[in-house]
Fold each of these.
Amino acid sequence: MSGDGLSMDRDPAGVANVPHAGEPPAAQPLTDILLRPAARPSRIPQPPARPEPALVEITIDGSPVSVPAGSTILEACRAEGIDTPTLCYLENLTPVNVCRVCVVEVTGSRVLVPACSRRVEAGMEVQTDSDRVRLSRRMVMELLGSSVDLSTAPAAAGYIERYEADPERYGPPARTAAPGERDAHEAGHHHPPATDAAETVLQPVKVDNELYIRDYSKCILCYKCVEACGEDAQNTFAIAVAGRGFDARISTESAVPLPDSACVYCGNCIGVCPTGALMFKSEFEMRGAGTWDESAQTVTETICPYCGVGCVLELHVQDNTIVTVTSPLDSSVTEGHLCVKGRFGFQFVQNRGPRQG
Amino acid sequence: MDLHVIGPLATPAERAAVDAILGPAESGWRGGVRDTGIDGHVARGGHAARSRRDLLIPALHAIQSRIGWISQPALNYVCKRLTVPPAEAWGVATFYALFATSARPPVVAHVCDDLACRLAGSDDLCADLERTMGLAGVPDHDGERTWLRSPCLGVCERAPAAMITIAGTVPQATVAAPVDAAGIAARIGPDGGGRTEHRDHPVPQAGQPGLRLLARIGVVDPTSLDAYLASGGFRALERARAIGPQQVIDEVTAANLVGRGGAAFPTGRKWAAVAAQPALPHYLVCNADESEPGTFKDRVLMEGDPFAVVEAMAIEAFAVGATKAYLYIRGEYPLAEARIADAIARSRDAGLLGDLDIELRRGAGAYICGEETALFESIEGKRGEPRNKPPFPVEVGLFGKPTAVNNVETLVNVLQIVGIDGGAAAYRAIGTDGSTGPKLFCVSGNVTNAGVYEVEFGVTLGQLLAMAGGVPGGRTLKAVLLGGAAGVFVGPEALDTPLTFEATRAIGATLGSGVVLVFDETADMAGALTRIARFFRDESCGQCVPCRVGTVRQEELLARLASGAAAAHGRRDDELALLRELGQVMRDASICGLGQTASSAIESALRRPEMVAL
Ligand SMILES: Cc1cc2nc3c(=O)[nH]c(=O)nc-3n(C[C@H](O)[C@H](O)[C@H](O)COP(=O)(O)O)c2cc1C
Ligand code: SF4
Ligand code: SF4
Ligand code: SF4
Ligand code: FES
């Protein structure tokens, strides 16, 4: 125990033998060295070694692959360089496996399985590009594309192209709902279908505060914001899924405006939203004015100046103005999550008005 | 979590309703009166309150049935009492069709317009109501009453049906069937409350010799424990305790009993898996959510022989090592609920249940909560969203613990097996090799004597229909819906098919929950398909894309086909191809059985031009 730098059994008497500061160092007798307090640990204590997880043999698209036990099929595919589409999956959130765009075929399973959450088992035979898989992925994208505005969801647009989805074939979009109309739908109350148009979630944008907007016309109901606001990060639980079936929607309590809700404006929901349904008001206004230009933006990494936690910030700057703030998903401090100060408290940096008294 | 609760305070009536379930609020922190002596500077609530989260739905029921709807202040009060974030509670309240989250009159007629009731004229009934009372959901002139359309109420043998709910200090819920617009008006009128129903017998075979599952129904008083004991009741439990849990499981396994809830899973295997789990406690759940359109057998069992259900639960709990059991009953079964509650109380008071605690939980209008994992979520006080499987309930079930879930009919079969020495062998001798035992079928629609029938597996569809008196009025049979909305339509050629799991599978059909819904030549098949599409759209939980959007697209497509819009644009073949692709993605990629079967009946009918021409 005494050799690991962590032992507590040093001799208190030795403290007296430390030479006075400022005295020229004399040749040290051996007893001095022996009685000196033990050196402080020179390396950071490591957690106890954990055995490497056992490897499991599976096949993916016919090729044998070894992956650590406990991995998901998605992780196995990624390790093999197989690009698997995902919409509701994010590394820093618990998988909810609801979008179903990642489905793969597993021999022996009656239905397709979600790659993002199904764990590998020895001998599993996985197919990632069979006709069944392609059909399901194409249809999922068609169903989303025909009911949701995906115009600020680049990944989704990519999948639509990749799987040759044709959202138009369900007919033109039905009328946009009136403000609050979708929020008032009660479970089980039927809305008869149109015979000449496809039902959508289109509705007016909710602009009810100065920091961010909620455009649920763009919401694919991936549950990410709910997870980020709740158990997986923020623990505020200001939003939840309300309603049922196609009427399901993200909602505050009784659908009140954000300022009346429990929201603390940490913006973690914005950080995880894959479709732009949740957006900084700054970005929303610039898009409206036609001045939003991602190619003209730089990203500067810095540390949040407010408190001692030291969250990593990424400042997205266009025309010498901070337009949005994010944090990297892989940051060990934040895992992508911030608080209201780091996320939105940047206005003072660019307060260009005349100095006040 | 920091509860943020805004708005006005709940009314005394709302608070009283909640307190009746949760007990009085003991401090200002929990929504009670602030008292410096009690409250001081000490926070209360926390873990103790959160651990009662599963009482959220009972508390919402209490408000709904006292006031007629759940206001924001009332919801907030429950949140304070249970430390549930208001947004989450809102998510739960808006999930269930029997909870109103905007003002609704206290008196509501829920009028069934589903498959069997349509065949009995519910469309005309609803049209009459529109004329006399106004559109569905619109309160009448004094704001006291309204009517709503409802999915299948599970009384198909007496269609058309309506459930009347009257909110108040003594809430009432009754089912009226058969009923017409005048009957509904009389029941919900100013002095209509409290009317008790005269009920015809739902079991045409009542009293016949040789019945096993239905032997007591219509014969033994369902409200009397003494009568149940006198007719041999609780002897199976006694024998189970004598032979021990392992022997019980072995006998159920040897009998080849499979689940009657629709999935046909071997019951003995399920029990053995739960019994063997090291994690504790183990739970037992009796699935009495019975909401598959056309299904009413579990209701008949619970209304007519409730002690049998309780006894069977006690046997299963003993076998799987559970001391806590739940019976989850759909919210539209007031009489069955009362009978079961009574049977549990009497059995417990008589000391027959030992250390077993059976808790009755009422659903709130959500077909999806019959899916076992959605049912767990609902008992836990959450939205009824099915979980992804694996892990399976035998490992990770209710409250994350090993759980055995069984259907009411499955349970009642257990009494036949465990009741006597050699019961398993005798049981296995009934029916066929692949499908053992007696089976209940819910026969309704265009038949002379609708009702629940008990037969041995292997009886053909034609024989069963003959027992029910066949199609009335000399008309010919057009189609039979086997297995409910999630099932398959078959034509007259299937009359010779034995009603067994294996024989129905061989013709691409299913027994599902035992639905045999008969359509004669006059039936409006296109309307039936549209109703099925609507059912799945309304009942989808909305969690996964294939089902949430797919059921909407399927309904739109059927509307285009039925209205002739598709043909008018020369797109009929495209539309049919699209319908098949929709069916495939729902079947392949949906999370649960609802989405996976949402296209099954519709596709089976559209494959047969002679059955439905669209
Ligand atoms: C959408 C859906 C609804 C279901 N509804 C019911 C139901 O109302 N009653 C029931 O017993 N099983 C129902 N099930 C089946 C249950 O998930 C489960 O398999 C069953 O309760 C197990 O009991 P058993 O083995 O005794 O049949 C449903 C399944 C699905 C997918
Ligand atoms: S900003 Fe933060 S607190 Fe507000 S809804 Fe989003 S995640 Fe929840
Ligand atoms: S708002 Fe965004 S993060 Fe939230 S469910 Fe919708 S798409 Fe997902
Ligand atoms: S299939 Fe339908 S009911 Fe089942 S989880 Fe998905 S959306 Fe919910
Ligand atoms: S990424 Fe797997 S289901 Fe959404």
Note: Chain B has a mean pLDDT of 94.
Amino acid sequence: MARLSKLNRRDFLKMTGLGTAGLALQTTVSQAAYGALALSTQQAAASQALSLNIFVHIAVNNRVTIMAHRSEMGQGIRTSLPQIVADELDADWDKIDILQAQGDEKYGDQNTDGSNSVRNFFQPMRVMGASAKLMLRQAAAATWQVPLESCIAKDHRVTHSPSGKSLSYGELAQAAAKLPLPDAKLLSFKNPQEFKYIGKPMAMADFADIVRGNTSFGIDTKIPDMVYASIERSPILGGKVKSFDASKALLIPGVIQAVKIDGGIEPAGFTPLAGVAIIATNTWAAMEGRKALSITWANNPAHANFDSRAAISKLISAPVTEAKTVATRGDIAQAFATAAQTYEATYSLPHLEHATMEPPAATAKVTANSCEVWACVQDPMTARKLIADMLGFKLEQVTVNITLLGGGFGRKSKPDFVAEAVVLSKAIGKPVKVTWTREDATRNGYYHAFSVQHYKAALDAKHQIIGLDSSVASPSIISLFKPDTGYMQDWELGQGFTSLVYKIPHLRARNIPVIAHTRIGWMRSVYNGNHAFALNSFMDEIARSNKIDPLQYHVDSLPAEEPNDGKSSAEKNDFAYSPLRLKNAIKAVQKTSGWPAKVNASEGWGFATHRSFDSYVAVASKVSLANKELRVLEVHISIDCGQILNPDRVQAQMEGSVIFGLSAALLGEISFKEGAAEQSSFHDYPMLRITQSPKIVVTLISSDKKHSGAGEPGMPPVGASITNAIVAAGGPRIRDLPIKNHLKIG
Amino acid sequence: MNKVKINGVEHPIDADPNMPLLWVLRDLLNMTGTKFGCGRGLCGACTIHLNGQPVRSCLMPLAVAFGAEITTIEGLSASGDHPLQQAWLAHKVPQCGYCQSGQLMSAAALLKNNPTPSDAEIKDAMSGNICRCGTYPRIEAAIKSVAGVQIHQPATNSKGAI
Ligand code: FES
Ligand code: FES
């Protein structure tokens, strides 16, 4: 039976040196904390383990259970954080079970978002492993009555070196678990040369189950007495159900009842949309019942006329009126007065939807004084708080079980689908699983913001940018939570619009307000993708119009020196902007692509680069326009994301980011007409297919800097690398995405 | 009662004959390895074998399965060691894993019908399976590594039926 963990919040903070990093730790590990995923026999044995701290549990049978507290959506985090613990623990990887933690603040921040997991948890995970190892050594020293220094931990055993006596971790677990948590000052950590798992391409713990179809995603949950729901939701933001007729639906075999969901609150946050749910004995009957519903909506006239293409066109053509200046440097008027040449262009990108392969799905069981949910959530703590608030419960009354996520990309950070299951379970007094259809996901998403950006550059006689006057118009994510002013947040603008990597002495950046008419949400790389597309296109246009090699133009536009902030290099923040690291990333793709490479007729290379999530990425892509059809032939991508915990997963994230970026740039568009999304499924909102997938060459740059993001930074430069290549191949300059609106995609 | 043979085992099924096999498998038989991605034949997440041919189970009514042999990911091999399953592990193909049952079933059907496919034939056979995580390069490499290797017959045990 799990016993009390002795790690309290203060100890944890002291040990990890995290201070007020938002970690709140409780003192106990309850048996319930083990119930997150269905326990396999092996795991069930491990759950009888003794806790050395909240992340490390050791059973007398010598199996070590490591808690995975972040959500797994393909990035491999369920494997890579335990790699760190296991390494510092000197455990045998084959004797490790990984158990998904429930949503609980004792684990610290579980919001798996922003490419943060390794950045924030590398050191805390080392502490967990190292402190458990020290306790095992202390237990051995006490058992043998020998000095601690003579007890060496290695390969899942502690050995007394003079005598050769040794005990396995399982044999020491009981004694170790009785010891107090060691003082943080006593912990010692491995040197990087001693790492056994950190930095190694370990296979994801879930691979074997995945290839056998033996996994449990949110959509796979089944609990006793559960019924199935499918919900017809208001297609327009803020819409409410005026009246509905479910009589035909109720005739369909398997349909049990119809339940109206009040909703459509604005700002929407994560509250349910208004709609009517059909409850049935299986998913198909619920979906069929839904088709037979007739609903009259009461729409919010403020959103009911929204036409996104018209809105984007208007912003492209309209003169800037209400703009707010969000960044300035030097004297922009002076720059234009002395310019040898000016250049100007406007770019736009449409709304997008995440299109996770597993649509949102959640199961809830609400009783008079408890609520338990099973769901594919990226942010279990937010889901737990939302549910507690909805039901008037304390957090302790709400249990959030995190399943595997069939893709996340930011969509599953928004637990509106969990809230729906809770509302329905409470209403009908039974456990309910809500499964979204593809149409639901496409039409009722939390959309990536559209963006219209205008750039005007003043160039000197050497074609260098001496002044940049820019504006951006893009609905803000804040509109989801607060009355909408139309202005973007500083952090949104800071994703590549106001945070420029180039040496530009004079600049003015402005933000034009746009009111959101749909739920705006964050999607992989968030605003970085929009800003990187426009700026990289603009740089390319200037370079080509002056017959300068575009890649070289980027290099020449970067500062020659590292920024001098007056600090010695030892004090320098590892995350401070480094032009040198960006140049190295550029060099890497220059090398693998052979830039400036020779091409056949109708072929061309394009380049783009971007720094985001503290990582440095460069992309060079080769396209063909033969037969008037765009084919992406090769994409070379390099990343410097500091030290690398699991190179195979970083490589996989780069491959995935390239394909995600290509789907967006080539094919991605959600458009709104009369307030509603026009697309519904993969036929009109297509994703890149294997026949369109290029050769991808990834370079991981080795670095001793702190770990930075890997899940998102690969995506932003992809789009512009393609539109730039199209120009090189003799095609048109495409300033408005997606490319499919301009060229046939092969 | 009508019976359906899945992974070698007969299952009596009392359901609307129009119910797509996808939901028969997932909701009635608890065989959740076969996934729902679109319900319209557009993504391939629900791919199974019907008499050895790959089909989209979201579009295939239960009635079609009466008297037919169905194979799902749970029955692709007796102990999860189909050469493609092994190749998937060797190439570390999956990311989130959600599309992978469908990918494997499409790939297995391809190699069964054409043990030595060309690159174009591989891409063509896999073009109905979307992977939003972008595992295509590894899927292609994994299939190529197995192409030409002897493929087992699908197992006829009840491993997947819980
Ligand atoms: S679920 Fe059947 S093809 Fe998409
Ligand atoms: S691995 Fe996630 S959709 Fe293919």
Note: The beta strands of chain B are 2-6, 9-13, 47-50, 53-56, 69-71.
